[in-house]
Amino acid sequence: MKTQVGVLMALLWIQICWIRVEMQVEQSPRVLILQEGRNSSLTCNTSVAMAGVQWFQQNPGGRLIFLFYIASGVEQKGRLEATVSTKERYSHLYIRDSQPGDSATFFCTVEAQCP
Question: Which residues form the Ig-like domain (predicted)?
């Protein structure tokens, strides 16, 4: 019973935090045109303190593909690398040695840090 009350209180706190935090998230550049073999990056900026960032890829006509969840530092998967600076409120997604299969829409989502 004690555990259930603790879980319910935690869920209530999370909901209150989500309601209280207004956030703006901006990705740049809005459109990125790459040449095969070149490196590039996308940036995700937010207006509030962040606890972590997720990056996703969606191929034309395809499903959303999870790439990274990063709360600090650097994560790498193949030619993709994500960095985050929670203090500076941004994350970068680097694409190294671009390939035709990289043609997609990339999304970031931000997990806000509760005040």
Answer: 23-115
Q: What are phi and psi of 85, to 5 degrees?
A: -125, 95
Residue 69: domain span: 2-112
**Is residue 29 helix, strand or coil?**
coil
| Helices within the chain (DSSP H only) | 2-20
Tokens of 33: 């045109």
CB neighbours of residue 108 within 10 Å: 24
* Residues in contact with 76: Cβ distance below 8 Å, sequence separation at least 6, in sequence order: 82
Structure tokens at 63: 């499903």
**CA–CA separation, 15 vs 13, rounded Å?**
5
The pair of structure tokens assigned to 101 is 């299969």
Q: What's 103's domain CATH number?
A: 2.60.40.10
pTM greater than 0.85 (yes/no): no
Beta partners for residue 111, in sequence order: 52
Judge whether residue 51 has pLDDT over 60. Answer: yes
